[in-house]
Amino acid sequence: MNRVLTIARLTVLEASRRKLLLALALLTLAVIVLTSWGFSRLPTMKDVTPAQVRLAASQLTILVAFMFSGVLALGSTLVAAPAIASDIESGIALAILPRPIRRSQVLMGKWLGLAVLVVLSPMTGGVIALVLFFVAWIGGIALAIGQVFGNDTIINIGVGSRLLIPTDGLWHGAIFYLEPSDILAAARVAGRARAGNPFFADQPLAFKYILWVIAWLVAVLGLANWSFARRDL
Amino acid sequence: MQARSIDPPALNPDEAAGAASLAIHTQDLAKRYGKTVALAGLTMSVRRAEVFGFLGPNGAGKTTAVKLLVGLALPTAGQGWVLGAPVGDLKTRRRLGYLPELFRYQGWMSAREVLELHCKLAQIPRPDWKKEIDAALELVGLSDRAGDRVDGFSKGMQQRLGLGVALLGRPDLVLLDEPTSALDPVGRHDVREVIRALKGRGTAVFLNSHLLTEVEQICDRIAVVDHGRVIATGTMAEILGKDGAVRIRATGLATTGRAALRAYGSFDDEGEWLTFRGLSQDRVPDLVGEIVRQGGRVYAVEPRHETLEDRFLELLKENG
What we know:
Chain A is mainly alpha-helical. Chain A is 77% helix and 0% strand. Chain A has helices spanning 2-17, 20-41, 50-68, 75-90, 92-96, 103-120, 122-149, 152-164, 167-176, 181-190, 207-229. In chain A, helix 1 crosses helix 6, helix 6 packs across helix 7 and helix 7 (122-149) runs antiparallel to helix 8 (152-164). In chain A, 31% of the residues are buried. In chain B, 34% of the residues lie in helices and 28% in strands.
């Protein structure tokens, strides 16, 4: 565990030395200031009903949550392997791996370090997982479109991608809890037409799906370990 | 990662005891990448506290051999022991120092921080860090740059730092893969001094190099590899042969006279200069007498020791 922490510490230290953390802290601060200002302006607008303010506020909250989402920590599992690949390519790993440390410990340390970074600064998570997220997001939209048009193939593609990269599923699960209940009710009345909105969810997370996500995490880390342990450098 | 996919040791007890007392011992250690054979079957031994030179042309499998020994790559066949333990053994790695051929350290760290990281990874007790690091910096001549960021270092300075990292914790075996490739003549001299100092304190050194003069100057024993195989191994004297070459300048030798000299072995005929190889020193006066008998006038007789380079090229040709 000690050696895992050494690598994790190294990963975080690198981010802070390269002024990555500072840049992210500044960006995070800017986002907080701007959103707070935006929220404070909402009730002062003319000709808006409290219901509209609530709708706008919920959508804004979801948008901000998108950037601050802890869900994106998940992305670091997939990113740890490329981070190690770049260490191998640059020759840094050649000096570290012959030391008395298991490759799995290096991998876990890298992942832990990245996870810490994601938690420390949600913006990092945003940067790291954005690409991943969009892949899944398109899958999520595909699922919604499929539901609108009743097309089974598109639904299957959507479900498949939601299972392969679970960020979108978790995202929809998370925003469900951010939505005001009257809007949820109205949306349910409106039916399928609302389903295409990626900033909207009409169902909470299924317990089975959460289990799947945990299994997914374990599997991805296990797979990365397995392949890294056998790799010739 | 501890259990390596090599065959269980098939040595008899005597051999096993022998392997334990050696710094490195391999038997038919081989590595293939797909269909490419990087190392065809390496069998060799490196004793404790000796400086062992591993020579070969580019692509002979030198770096692959070192990577197998330090556990960076997995052997596809054969067996290997390092300091008495199977290659890749996690605990044994504590007693190994390694300077990779193409490497880089974290450019955002200072030299001292890189050394601290490796102290930690090598599990050196924390109270010893300062002493170890200061000694390493001093030895490789980086004491005044200890606080500078590594990405500001020249290639030569990075190589010096790499050598310092490899020496941390007084390892029993140090593997150096082309340690002087980026160094100027002063740097090369310094590295030779470091290697001599290591030998003096009982550390075995495995030196991968294609710089023959360097190997000639510091190695106790060498192995020459080509196409993934050892084609010669032994002490420098054994490799070079006890009999050197002799170069003679003579005029007035006719064709028949030259033919008569064949009795002294084959020679390079460069007109006035004749170079005889593999001739025992005792026979040199007889040879000169024969030349005179054949009507030759002798101006110079130069005994010449064959250089490692000559022998190296010869070996490669013989085995090509």
